[in-house]
Amino acid sequence: MDSFLWTFLQSVVNGIAIGGIYCLVSVGLTMIVGIMKVVNFAQGDCLTVGMYLTFLLQVLTGWDPLLLLLPVSIFMFAFGLVLFEIVIRPIANRENTVFTVVTMGLAYVISTGLLLIFGGMPRSVSSVISASTLTIGTFSIAMPRVVAFLVMLICIVLLHFFLKKTDMGRAMRATAENREIAEILGINTAVIMRLSFALGIMFAGVAGLLLTPTYYLYPSTGGTFMIVTMVCVVIGGLGNIAGAVLGGILIGIMESFIATFISVDLSQGGAFILLLLVLIFMPNGLFGKGERIA
User: Fold this and answer.
1) For residue 35, which of 210, 240, 230, 184 has the smallest C-alpha distance?
2) pLDDT digits (tens, 9 = 90+) for 155-193
3) Residue 162 in contact with residue 180, Cβ under 8 Å?
4) Residues ≥6 apart with Cβ < 8 Å to 237
């Protein structure tokens, strides 16, 4: 195979694998955007909570991070419910500006709390897959990225089934379409919003767990991913789950191309280049439909 073609295809493979993590965080955020019509600016810091929770549970149990997937998911879902009751529910019907300020404050509180508890020293989580690679033909992929992508696929399939095949999922979709009409139809939108927020936080926590084999932990880790996540959601179209998935994969591929052919240091700029191009030609994002959010 031509060396340029091999490098090109290897970049695509790496980009798709990287995009898996972006997808997972973006889906959680876009659920909150789609149903609550607001942006949770603490989403990245909730990802950091998932990373530190994985670290803490590994210290206590000695288990590999992959074995901690279920307990971390349950804890993060419960954490989302608590956050909703304490922080979000009191401002649920206020203006979006209030929600923005409050969630930005929540992000600051979470990162500061993590700094006070764990300190600023970077920490790491060991895993049996940290140094492993998957080889397919002449291509190779870091095993942690393969696992992250597979977990993302499973989560997306389960979420799709939940939204399409269950009464609660249909109620969530109806609330996303029009909250007032959903209430007229007898749907308890307060419960729907609580569930949506908790699921969004759970997705962020799971993404945090999947990052631990390859990333160091420090209290501000989530800030970097929050920016990319926001870009994914905007590119895909606000509140559109399929759009968030596609946006995450496209950003991963763009970053991989820039890292391979230009410079690793400039790779994170790929997200913004893609954002600019999409907004020029499709102002509502790839799957956006104006004011409708679903």
Assistant:
1) 240
2) 889 988 988 889 988 998 888 888 888 888 888 888 999
3) no
4) 243, 284, 285, 286, 287, 288, 289
Which residue is associated with the tokens 């998957």?
134
- Phi then psi dihedrals of residue 134, to 5 deg: -105, 125
pLDDT of residue 77 exceeding 90, the answer is yes
The answer to whether the beta carbons of residues 236 and 287 sit under 8 Å apart is yes
Q: What's the pTM value of the predicted model, to 2 decimals?
A: 0.88
pLDDT in tens, 246-286: 888 998 898 888 888 888 888 878 888 888 988 888 888 88
Q: Around Cβ 23, how many Cβ atoms within 10 Å?
A: 31
- Give the helix ranges, DSSP H, for the chain: 3-36, 43-61, 69-83, 96-118, 143-165, 167-177, 179-184, 189-211, 221-236, 241-261, 270-281
Query: What tens digit of pLDDT does each residue of 113-165 get?
Result: 999 999 888 888 888 888 888 888 888 888 888 888 898 889 889 988 988 88
- What whole-number distance in Å separates Cα of residue 121 and Cα of residue 208? 18
Rounded Cα distance, 13 and 23, in Å: 15
Report CA Rg, the chain. Answer: 19
268 Cβ contact list (under 8 Å, min separation 6): 224, 228, 255
Separation CA 207–CA 224 (nearest Å): 13
| Residue 294 pLDDT exceeds 50 | no
Q: What is the dihedral of CA 124, 218, 79, 210, to 10 degrees?
A: -40
Dihedral in degrees, nearest 10, Cα atoms 171, 175, 178, 183:
80
Handedness of CA 111, 116, 118, 123 (dihedral sign): positive
Q: Give SS3 for 51.
A: helix
* Overall residue count recorded for the chain in this entry: 294
